[in-house]
């Protein structure tokens, strides 16, 4: 991390901040000077994150919330404006794996739940904070996708379909922002050492994978005011 705090004075909302990539983003953004709104379902994990960020001199506000509570997402933009007066950055990171199964065998409730978290919640999130991003000097929207979205992999139909839908939604939103100062992008992290990855590949040695912390530079680059990338799906090098 550079000595200069690239996100000084920014307010950033990060979903799925309890664990994995979202947690790493929240910590890095705080270290870069942002005031982080950390959204997640696991209250205990959020409180640990709060302790760690504050111990390092960072600023964080915890937002324990299940993203399928759509009414609360709808009200989030107004609540953020009331408390902070602005929102500069949103990172839509939260996702669930769902069920790895043949398409014809996927449980219907599991399908609906996975779609709800991975796609519908991000749609509601965009709709809720859109005006705030447009009002910001340099609004930034970053969403986390997966290489599975572009591959017809057996047993991955549910997760892949939700990520493909997310990509279409976010890239369309990016096109709509072409005449604004808002930059909208997706990040495809690749294989990362997370609990979701472990659930999908139980026989894999996690020590052979990169840590979430190792790919944080790309998120800072996309969140910074000097970012010029827009409407892209970016894979960390």
Helix and strand element order:
EHEHEHEHEHEHHE
Number of helices: 7
Largest sheet: 7 strands, parallel
Cα(first) to Cα(last) distance is 16 Å
What top-tier CATH class fits best? Alpha Beta
CATH topology: Rossmann fold
- Please report the total strand number as a whole number: 7
What class would the helix/strand composition place it in? alpha/beta
Indicate the CATH architecture.
3-Layer(aba) Sandwich
Provide the number of structural domains: 1
The averaged pLDDT comes out at 96
State the helicity in percent bands. Answer: 40-55%
What is the CATH superfamily label?
NAD(P)-binding Rossmann-like Domain
The fraction of residues in strands falls at: 5-15%
> For the CA atoms, what is the radius of gyration?
17 Å
What global shape is seen?
A: globular
Question: How would you write the strand order of the largest sheet?
Answer: 3-2-1-4-5-6-7
Which regions have little confidence, pLDDT < 50, spanning 5+ residues?
Answer: none
Task: Record keyword descriptors for this entry.
seven-stranded parallel beta sheet, alpha/beta, single chain, Rossmann fold, 43% helix, 237 residues, 7 helices
What does this entry look like structurally?
Belongs to the short-chain dehydrogenases/reductases (SDR) family. This is Oxidoreductase. Keywords: Oxidoreductase. It comes from Thalassospira mesophila. This protein is of the alpha/beta class. The protein has one domain: Rossmann fold. 43% of the residues lie in helices and 14% in strands. It is built from 7 helices and 7 strands. It has a 7-stranded parallel beta sheet with strand order 3-2-1-4-5-6-7, with helices on both faces. Strand 4 (89-92), helix 4 and strand 5 (140-144) form a beta-alpha-beta unit. The radius of gyration is 17 Å and the shape is globular.
